[in-house]
Every structure is written in C-alpha cells, then in structure tokens.
Amino acid sequence: MSAGAGIPAPSALARRSILTIVGVLFAIPIVAMVEFTLRRGLEGGYDLSRWITVLTGDLGPAYRPLGQAIGNSLALAAVTVLVVLVLLVPTMVLVQLRLPQLRRALEFVCLLPISIPAIVLVVGLAPVYSVVARLFGSGVWTLAFAYGIIVLPFAYRAVQSNLDALDVATLTEAARSLGASWPVTIVRVLLPNLRRGLLAAAFISIAVVLGEFTIASLLNRQNLQTALVVVSKDDPYIAVVLALLALLLAFVLLLVIGRVGRGRTRKES
C-alpha cells in the first residue's frame, strides 16, 4: 500500500492483465492492417509483393508526390518542434520563476486547443492564413504555426510535469549567485534538467504532426496524410503499407528519444 495516498498498489497480476488488454487493443488494428497488405486480391492467398514494391522504391511516377509529402511532413515536424521549444519553454520558465500568479491562465490557454475541434480551428485560422500568405508566402511550412497551436496541450503537460519535479528557483538562484547570466542559466542549468520533458514534448509534437490531416486538407496544403488519402483512391494496399511504415517511424523515434534520455541520465548519475 502506498504511504502517501493510502490507495493499495495493483498486484503484479493486475498490472500484467492491464498491459495485456491495452496491448491487444493496440495490436488488433495493426495486425489487421498488415494482413490486408499481404492479400493477393481476387487470386487469394498472401505474398510480400506490395511491401517489396514500397521498400525497393519501385512505385512508379504516379507516386512521386508522395516523396514530397513525406518531406513536407518531416519539415513541418521539425519547424513545429522548434516553434514549441522556442516560444513555449521560455514562457513556462518565466511564469514559474517570476509570474506564478499567471500559471493558471497559461495552463488554460495551452490546454484550450484540445477542446476545440480541428474544423473550428481551421475556420478561425483561414483569415489569419490569408495574412500569413501575404507576409510569408503560401509554403507548406507555414502550417507549423497552426500545428504549434494543436500540440500545445501535449507539449505543455510534458514540460510542466518536469518543471514541477524541479526546484527551479533554487537552481536559478545558485547559478545567478555564481555569476551566470540569464541566457547561460537557461541553456546550461535549466534546459539540461528539463531534458526529459523537452524530449517528451518533441516526440508528442512529431507524432501529432505526422498524423495530422484535417488542417492540411482544409487549408489546401500537402502533407503525408493528405497524400495517403490520394494514394488510397488508386491503391489502398500501398496506402496502408505507407501508413504502417509511418507508424513504425513513430515507434523508432519513441525508442530513440527514450534511450537518449536514459543514457544521459545514467551518465549524470
């Protein structure tokens, strides 16, 4: 029984049962997708021909826009992570240190996008993007401004949980008393201690951007998901193969980010 909350901890059997149920719920649609891509159509049976076609790059000229769409999604993910880290993290540190009375207001603003449907966001963003197009052009990278809004709830929670676990005031005062400037304090003292939260925020942002469809479609931009819809109209098997590869990429990113975080933590300990 946990001493703090007085709530009995689940037994090992209960934990394994919960993990098994959750794992099965996640695995069923993935297995169904894999089985679908292996079908040979009306001939019956299964083979790897579609996977071989995709992995060898032998898709033909009709699928060339797909490469551009993948590049667009990766660029959008990078710019979105940059926007979140540059704007959100310093703001949260400032509120934590100097303006704690604004924490509830900042939390409300950051969590608000999760309660607004994407279609409503697009209606509100449409006139904004007419101005953005005049100032910065209509390049697909401008979607990063909208994506920076929709990933705010997830990035905020990841970073805030890390901030709550740190004594930010003591760390900052110690660094400042030793003569460190504010930029040095943030870069060399706070950010290394916020590594886990930053990595989690970056991963969640990448996962959301790679799976986003509604805003890109309604604002007439091309990303991976809009391209998959176009591909699925010609060949649904290839579209599912590419969707599975995108999911695999997200899993690999999760493992890499988790391993990087654990590796640096062990070195510091």
Topology, please?
Layout: H1 12-38, H2 49-55, H3 64-97, H4 103-111, H5 118-136, H6 143-150, H7 152-164, H8 168-177, H9 182-193, H10 195-210, H11 214-218, H12 224-234, H13 236-268
General description of the model:
With 269 residues, the protein is an all-alpha fold. 76% of the residues lie in helices and 0% in strands. The longest helix has 34 residues.
In short:
The chain is built from 13 helices and no strands. It is mostly helical.
Task: Give the tags.
single chain, 269 residues, mainly alpha, 13 helices, 76% helix, 0% strand, globular
Strand content: under 5%
Oligomeric grouping of the chains: single chain
Envelope shape: globular
Arithmetic mean of pLDDT: 83
Number of strands: 0
Helical residue percent?
A: over 70%
Number of helices: 13
Question: Which class best fits the helix and strand makeup?
Answer: mainly alpha
Strand count, sense and barrel status of the largest sheet are:
none
- Rg is 22 Å
Order of helices and strands: HHHHHHHHHHHHH
Low-confidence stretches: none
Euclidean distance between termini CA atoms: 29 Å
